Amino acid sequence: LEAKHNENPGAREAHRALAFEMTKLVHGEEATNDAINASKILFGGGLDGISENALAQVASEVQSATIAKADLESEDGLSILDALVSAKLSQSRKTAKKDVQGGGVNVNNERVQDLGYKLTAADVHYDKYILLRRGKKNYAVLNVE
């Protein structure tokens, strides 16, 4: 650990190791791993291999909106513009359109630039969550019921 730190102090390996061990002592290893995975989600990591607990933790920390499963299963799906407005990430379809065209919209941390993009059941994780992001720091979770 010391060698890694001396090699690249900016990577903050020692800080991460200390934080991991302290959090593990207080909350347990599973909760610690879920917290690490949740932070990876919020800081640009993919959703592959993410546990349901980690997604639930993210959902509890960011704004959310509820959508009907039927909206996703319909032939048309739910438009990305309507989803952004429902999640209050955009004030109107017009601003949502600008956000999508500008490349600032992500669904499950995958960039969406197609104005015709429709959310479908394939976008849902653990039968309940769709993660939306506008810009770098504006997140919302769509809870599917």
Per-chain topology:
Blueprint: H1 2-7, H2 13-27, H3 29-42, H4 52-61, E1 63-67, H5 69-73, E2 78-79, H6 80-86, H7 93-101, E3 105-107, E4 110-111, E5 118-119, E6 129-134, E7 138-144
Parallel strand pairs: 1-7
Antiparallel strand pairs: 2-5, 3-4, 3-6, 6-7
Helix pairs in contact: 2-3, 3-4, 6-7
If you had to describe this structure to a student in words, what would you say it looks like?
- With 145 residues, the chain is an alpha+beta fold.
- The chain folds into two domains: 1-61, no CATH class; 63-145, Structural Genomics Hypothetical 15.5 Kd Protein In mrcA-pckA Intergenic Region, Chain A, CATH 3.10.290.
- It has seven helices and seven strands, in the order H-H-H-H-E-H-E-H-H-E-E-E-E-E.
- The strands form two sheets. It has a five-stranded mixed sheet with strand order 1-7-6-3-4, with helices on both faces.
- Strand 3 (105-107) and strand 4 (110-111) form a beta hairpin.
- Helix 2 (13-27) packs across helix 3 and helix 3 (29-42) crosses helix 4 (52-61).
- The relative contact order is 0.15.
- The mean pLDDT is 86.
